[in-house]
Every structure is written in C-alpha cells, then in structure tokens.
Amino acid sequence: MKDAEALLAAHLPMATSSWSVGEFGVLAEFHHARTPTESASTSIASTDGGALRVSLHPDVRVLAYETPSPNPRLWNHGIAFCLPEDKARMDGRTGVTELGPDTRAIFDSSREDLLFDLGLARRSVNFCVRTGDPTLVSVLRRALGVSVLDDAALSAAIVAAGPTRVVESRMARIEITNPIPAPGGASPEGPHTHLMPELIRRRRTHDANIPLPAGYLACLTLYPSHPARDAEGRERTFDANLHAEYQHLLERYGDADYLAAKRGEDGRRSRKENLGRLIAARQRALASKIDPDPT
User: Which residues pair with 65 in a beta bridge?
Assistant: First the structure.
C-alpha cells in the first residue's frame, strides 16, 4: 500500500504521466492536455477534456512491466495497480441500466446528470455515459436491457450526442468530456476513450504480454513518461534519463523472471523471458542508435 501511495503522490500531479482504467477493448485514457489544470486534491487530476480520481484499496499490488510495440524499435511500459479478482470485480451488467443521478461524479456540477451503464459485462470495469440531454436520455431508456454492442442505432446516437463517458474500477474513475470521434476517426489529444467491439468480444482482460499475478486484475495503470515516445504514441529522440528512471521502477516492481532475462541470466524460454530478451535488445540498440530489426 505504501508503494502505491508513493507512486500516486509522485505521478498524479505530473503532467507528463498518463493513466488508464479498463480492459482489452474497453479503455479510458487520461493524458494531460496542453494546459493541465492544477488540483488541490491529492487524489484528483483534471485537464481540458477529462478528470481522474483515484482511491487506493488496502490490498493493492503494484506491477511494473514492459511489452513489445508494433514499432520494431520501441516498446510499451506501464505500472499496473492490481487487486485479487474477487475484490476487483465490478457489476458486470449485460444491458443498458439507468443508475440515477451520478452522485459520485468527480465535480459537484455534474451530480444531477443521469448515469447509464452501457452493459458491456466486463469483469473489472463499468463503462457508463452521463448526460442531462433529454433526447439522449429517452434513447437510452428505450434501450434498457440491451447491450450497446448489440444496438448500432444506440451506438450512433451516443457518438452523435457526445455525452460524458464515465469509466470506473474499484480503485479509480475517469470521466471524459472530449468529443467522441466518428467511426474510423482519430481520438483527440488529451483524455479519450476506446470502445472496440471486435476486441471486447474476445473476453480478455489484458494484453497477454503483461505478466499479471495469477488471480489478479489491473484496476488502474500508470504510464510514466516514455524515453522514446510521447503520450500520444509519437516517436521522439531517446532520453537516457527517462529510461534510467523507469528501469529503476521496473527493478523495484517488475516480474523477477522477466528482469532476469533482461540481465542475460539463463532461464526457461517462457513468453515473458523471451520478451525480456527482445526488449532489452531493442533498448540497447536504441540507446546506441542502432536499429535492432534492420530491414
């Protein structure tokens, strides 16, 4: 718990750190916009287009990880705040459900608007919309009991109306007010959501390359500043200091077998150990400005 509290205190106010709540195909991402907003709260961060509130659980377990990027020169990294599955589980609603006024909204000004769960039946997250628009409220009420995944007209109405998306786990809530892009459109910079039916239907909670402890689910993920990529995923000049900072976190909170593989120690040829060797090679090559995967 103390490690998680220290990470939260260090990174929540940091404009270069990003966060997410969600599962495979269902995700809210909190990135600071160009003009971050300061907060007097130690558990809330806000910026143009969205806000995040964190409430750590006493049983939280911290895992730092790295995974391959589709870009053969790069990798992803993150720090997952995990809970045992029985404590991480959310409501798992299978159809649109009206939840009444959003009394837990991050800001008082939104607590009279109505909250609707979209019925995605996810294990560790509820994906909801919040609105005071009478027209959209009527549309949502006509769809009660039906998952948004099974109602193309409802999905289109939500995109057109652009309500606030509210994505919650047992340890965090992200509220997104940025516009919803049209199908095939690009997500806006700053806070945004992803709802991808083709991935949701795979029923996976997370990327298979993330070595979550058995029986645990991630309820919040922190993305410290990446040494070779900005918050929107654009490649940039390698920063050795940022790389060293994250490697320190990885040594403290990472998976032991993965770390041993990165150090070149002999071990099994498991997925995570193979990934450790792959990513270590990419990092060495980028640091020395040699492409590890020449074409």
Answer: 78
